[in-house]
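[Meeting: bench + compute handoff]

Bench side (C.D.) handed over the final construct sequence. Compute side (W.E.) agreed to return the predicted structure before the next meeting so the bench team could plan truncations. Sequence as handed over:
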Amino acid sequence: MKVIDTEIADVKIIEPSVFGDDRGFFMETWNEEVFADNDLPTSFVQDNHSRSAQGILRGLHYQTKNTQGKLVRVTSGAVFDVAVDLRKSSPTFGKWVGVELSESNKRMLWVPAQLAHGFYVISEMADFIYKCTDLYAPEFEQSIAWDDPEIGIDWPLVDGNPPTLSEKDANGLSFSVAHHFQ
C-alpha cells in the first residue's frame, strides 16, 4: 500500500497494491501493520455500505461527540469524496480536500475524526464502503451545507445540475454556525 499526503496533513489517500490478470484481481484494503507504520488507526468498530445514484450528494456529515474517523472506498462506480477540517487549532481549519474514488482507481481516503465528510456520485451508480473508528450516534450528527460559500468546495456536478439531497442535507448548517472542534 502507498500512503499519499494531501493538503490537510491528517487526510491520506491510500493506494493499494493490486495484483491482477485475466481472471480478475486481488488487493488488500486494510492492513494493521501498514496503518500503524503510517500513524493511521488500527481499530475500527463499524463497517457501512451505501449505494447511490448519479447526482446524489451525501454530506457534509460529522458527529459532535463519538467522532468518527472513516476509511472510505468505492467498489462500484465513482464518487468525488470530500473532507473538511473542523479543527480550530489546525493550520488547515476550514479547508477542504477532494479526491475521486472509483472502482477503477481503487483508491481509498482516510478521513480523521473531527472532519466533516461527504461525497457526490459522478457515475450512473456507486457503491460506497467505509470503516468507522466509532459507532454511529445520530443524536450527535450534524450536516454542513454542501454549497457553503465560506468553504467553497468545487463539486464536479454532472451537467451542472444541482445535486439530489436528503432533507437533512438540504437543511445543512453554514460553516460559520456549525460546531467546530478545538
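W.E. noted at the follow-up: The chain has a mean pLDDT of 96. C.D. will use this when planning the next construct.
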